[in-house]
């Protein structure tokens, strides 16, 4: 899918603010699970870390936990404002809030990440993002001709970035492969 570059410029669409609750169908925190009660396993445990996509551990707890997938986790304490997209199932701690919209695909979630991460400038360890505050927060999003979020633009924009990165990667890979083949031929 090739789209004209000028259409994919972030300067071209109009932008408008929307409340988090108007964008996400569900805004839900994980549940508290102290380290002593974590059972080692294979399911990612997402907490308020700014590293490793927020994954703090791998556990096998099945009771009194909240599992999520295909959503954004937002650290509301600790590394406040760190946000990550998770396409896989994970267990969430009470230090992260899940932003869920079943209609979104990975490209729309990826477009939203840097916009959501800007909250980190507003909050800190002493001023956490709580349930009340997140409902007052707004996201600045590109809009369509009717004033609604332009989901198609967001998806196309991220697909274009992915396509360009893949093309660059394959170009480098083919150069390396050509060099290896040339050395083998000699």
UniProtKB/TrEMBL annotation:
GO terms for molecular function: DNA binding; endonuclease activity. GO terms for biological process: DNA restriction-modification system. InterPro entries: Restrct_endonuc_typeI_TRD, Restrct_endonuc_typeI_TRD_sf. Residues 14-167 form the Type I restriction modification DNA specificity domain. The keyword Hydrolase applies. It holds the Pfam family Methylase_S. SUPFAM superfamilies: DNA methylase specificity domain. Keywords: DNA-binding, Endonuclease, Hydrolase, Nuclease, Restriction system. Belongs to the type-I restriction system S methylase family. This is Type II restriction endonuclease subunit S.
């Amino acid at each position: 899918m090739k789209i004209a570059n000028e259409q994919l410029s972030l300067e071209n669409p109009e932008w408008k603010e929307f409340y988090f609750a108007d964008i996400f169908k569900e805004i839900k925190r994980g549940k508290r699970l102290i380290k002593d009660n974590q059972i080692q396993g294979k399911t990612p445990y997402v907490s308020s870390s700014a590293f490793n996509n927020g994954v703090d551990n791998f556990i096998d707890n099945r009771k009194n936990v909240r599992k999520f997938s295909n959503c954004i986790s937002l650290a509301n304490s600790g590394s406040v404002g760190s946000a990550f997209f998770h396409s896989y199932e994970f267990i969430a701690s009470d230090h992260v809030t899940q932003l869920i919209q079943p209609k979104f695909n990975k490209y729309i979630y990826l477009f939203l990440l840097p916009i959501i991460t800007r909250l980190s400038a507003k909050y800190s360890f002493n001023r956490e993002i709580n349930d009340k505050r997140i409902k007052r927060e707004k996201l600045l999003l590109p809009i369509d001709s009717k004033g609604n979020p332009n989901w198609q633009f967001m998806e196309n924009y991220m697909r274009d970035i992915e396509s360009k990165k893949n093309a660059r990667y394959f170009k480098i890979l083919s150069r390396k492969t050509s060099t290896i083949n040339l050395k083998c031929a000699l």
